[in-house]
Amino acid sequence: MTEPSLPTRPPRRTHETAPFWDGCARGVLVLPRCDRCGELIWYPRRFCPFCASTSVSWVEVTGHGTVYSCTVLRRGEGAYREAAPFVLAYVELDEGPRVLTNIVGVAPEAVTVGMPVQVVFDPAGDGDAIPRFRPAAP
Fold it and tell me: CA-based, 20 to 30 A from 101: which of 5, 12, 54, 110?
């Protein structure tokens, strides 16, 4: 089975998410870390949802993790209409946060909970990139 091509569009940047998307464009995964409680934050924002601090710093993370939960979508909507089947998954990063993403580089039926994965960046035009995950090299 050949892997479907997932749609990529330039991300919708905001003041809050710009450091995340800038990192993706450079091929690195960066997340905010709360300067008060130390928690890594997903989805990227400029305040801590754990302790309400507005003091965060952006840090590079490994981009390695495991599939925490996944589903195969066999019918897409909108830009994903022609991409089915594809995998939508939560990946638990080695550093802790769970990221909602796609799993690529493997047949959808082969994706399993607990599978080791690593981030890859799909070009999204204008120098931007979208983070997705593929099975980690052994």
Answer: 54
